[in-house]
Amino acid sequence: MIASLEGTVGAVAFDSLVIEIGGIGYRVFAAPAVLATATPGGRLKLHTFHLVREDVQALYGFRTVDELGFFTLLLTVTGVGPKVALAIVGSRPPAELQLAIMQQDQAMLVAIPGIGKRLAERIIFELKEKVAAAGIAAAGTVVVGGGSGDGDVVAALQALGYSLAEAREAARAALAGPAATGSLEDRVKAALRALARD
Questions:
Q1: Are 124 and 106 in contact (CB under 8 A)?
Q2: What residues have CB less than 8 Å from 123, skipping those under 6 apart?
Q3: Count of H-run helices and E-run strands, the chain
Q4: What is the enclosing helix (H) or strand (E) of 36?
Q5: How many CB atoms lie within 10 A of CB 6?
Q6: Are 68 and 49 contacting, i.e. CB atoms less than 8 angstroms apart?
Q7: How does pLDDT run across 25-57, given as a tens digit for each residue?
Q8: Cα torsion for 175, 179, 181, 182, to the nearest 10°?
């Protein structure tokens, strides 16, 4: 498995780029935002998903581990292949997409090219439980009385793939507002909103 690549950008196409490492050029499919910042001759590091099937091998590249994690989660949805998952991940930050799924916001998903109403419904149906369960399972591992009141929110955000620093900052922002007295789900949603604003 190829987990990440760091090297010189050899070429940039409309849907992919080539990263040259040690005389070998790796073609990596990436979102338009990644392609727009890549310049031939410049250095670039991408976290990658290495797709291996009987008839094809392909690399999909992401700027952050959060994007990669959400991409792999999207691949678990029936009818979502790598190209559709890449389009979804490339459309908005993972925090906004996770929040849309938790709030069952079909309109946000349907606004993404290639996503129809039925597929948006299926994504929400199949991922709502997984996104919420990741937060609740992580919160269950927090030691009661073992730290600040934002520990369960921090743990939930880390389970969703955010770094400890990002999770702590978002939890502080969420607990400074009206969500502070709400349920864990309300606090996690507020934290995801704070991450989406960044």
A1: yes
A2: 74, 77, 80, 88, 101, 109, 115
A3: 9, 5
A4: helix 32-37
A5: 10
A6: yes
A7: 999 999 999 999 999 999 999 999 999 999 989
A8: -130
